């Protein structure tokens, strides 16, 4: 085999190991927290915020329906909109980490990948009275460096098992129907409270806010109750 072909093959194998395998491991093989693990419960989680347009109104809707949720926030936005995060905490919601910015982690070098998980968690803990133990990678995609950093620090990877395409503008009733179609005992539902992310349609979280009453009704009518991700971790 020509030397350059050997080099290319080695680079390709290293790239697959570093970029692709961790995401297949996390999402394809389900080697992450995807359910609450507690009988009779459902967890409502929101990614990509906080957002000054939608998150306060989402908090109003959650309060009106007595739901405590989990927010996987971006640390840079959390520091920008501190008052919103402080309100989340004051109202009993769980705040965990989604990254510092909404970057695609698999292609990041090790140091930048560590910033997205452990670094962003530390930034949140320094700014707020929080214990951040759970990381949900942006787009659910990790690389070897972030997977190793999470494992070494004892953090937990959390993805989801109910996703309904709410980043596109979708009528609230349709969102509720899609959730009802996938809802199970112990479901972890992912929704989004920001439309600033690449691929999100402007105004989509507006419908998410409007869907909260229907989601609440659907979950409670099945005899299920809402729990936060931090309630599902066992020892605290
Ligand atoms: Zn996201």
- Number of DSSP helical runs: 8
The CATH architecture can be given as Alpha-Beta Barrel
Overall pLDDT metric: 94
Structural class: alpha/beta
Distance between the termini: 55 Å
CATH class: Alpha Beta
Shape: globular
The overall number of domains is 1
Bound molecules: zinc ion
Beta-sheet strand percentage?
5-15%
Described by strand count, sense and barrel closure, the largest sheet is: 6 strands, parallel
The helix fraction, in percent, is 40-55%
Q: What radius of gyration results from the CA coordinates?
A: 18 Å
Helices and strands, in order, run as: HEHEHHEHEHEEHEHE
CATH topology: TIM Barrel
Number of strands: 8
> Could you list the spans in which at least 5 consecutive residues all have pLDDT below 50?
none
- Looking at CATH, the homologous superfamily is Glycoside hydrolase/deacetylase
Describe the structure.
Keywords: Membrane, Transmembrane, Transmembrane helix. With 236 residues, the protein is of the alpha/beta class. It has a single domain, classed as Alpha-Beta Barrel (TIM Barrel), CATH 3.20.20. 45% of the residues lie in helices and 13% in strands. It contains 8 helices and 8 strands; from the N terminus they run H-E-H-E-H-H-E-H-E-H-E-E-H-E-H-E. The strands form 2 sheets. Strands 1, 2, 3, 6, 7 and 8 form a 6-stranded parallel β-sheet that branches. Strand 4, helix 6 and strand 5 form a beta-alpha-beta unit. The protein is globular and about 65 Å long. Zinc ion binds next to loops.
